[in-house]
Specification:
A hairpin with a 2-residue loop joins strand 3 and strand 4 (about 60). The protein has one domain: Rossmann fold. The relative contact order is 0.18. The protein contains six helices and eight strands; from the N terminus they run βαβββαβααββαβα. It has helices at about 15-25, 60-75, 90-100, 100-105, 125-135, 145-155; strands at about 1-10, 30-35, 45-55, 60, 80-85, 110-115, 115-120, 140. Strands 1, 2, 3, 4, 5 and 6 form a six-stranded mixed β-sheet that branches. A two-stranded antiparallel ribbon has the order 7-8. With about 160 residues, the protein is α/β, with parallel strands linked by helices. Helix 1 (about 15-25) runs parallel beside helix 6. The protein is globular.
Length: about 160
């Protein structure tokens, strides 16, 4: 099976997840950062994994644009979706549902919220100030759920 992992990241959390998925998947896997390659050709792939980070309740614009431009073709593929963010519980589910069009969510073979992280040394000043204010944290913190990532990979390998 030929798989494309297309993602958009701001400070690297989603990229970290995309690389881990890429390393765990069987078959031919290509990984594309949509910030640098805005329109990869999806026609040659059997499965598309889409991932993005959530900031202020919204998915990254590059991923949003890619999905909009390719929605019809994506609906003809096996598609899996993931998001990274710092919300938990019902809020994380709401963010995942708001990140992608309903038609794509319904078609997706897998959907998962992996959690997120604040790595303050990577953040721009304003983002760092907002993250510190909202989270109450002063030091780097990671809430990535490695078990969810591993389970996501295992399920995709069964397809």
């Amino acid at each position: 099976m030929k798989t494309l992992i297309a993602y958009s990241t701001k400070y690297g959390c989603t990229e970290k997840c995309a690389k881990e998925i890429s390393q765990g998947l069987k078959g031919d896997v290509a990984t594309v950062n949509l910030k640098t390659n805005k329109q990869p050709d999806i026609s040659e792939f059997d499965m598309i994994v889409l991932g993005g980070s959530i900031y202020a309740g919204r998915i990254r614009k590059e991923l949003q644009n890619f999905v909009s431009a390719n929605l019809e073709a994506l609906l003809e593929k096996n598609v899996a979706l993931f998001v990274c963010g710092m919300q938990e519980g019902e809020e994380s589910i709401k963010e995942l549902n708001n990140a992608f069009p309903e038609s794509l969510r319904k078609k997706a073979i897998m959907k998962e919220f992996f959690g997120g992280e604040f790595i303050f040394s990577k953040m721009k000043f304003l983002d760092k100030a907002i993250a510190k204010k909202v989270s109450g944290m002063e030091t780097d913190i990671s809430h990535l759920d490695k078990e969810k990532i591993r389970s996501f990979i295992d399920m995709l390998n069964k397809i």
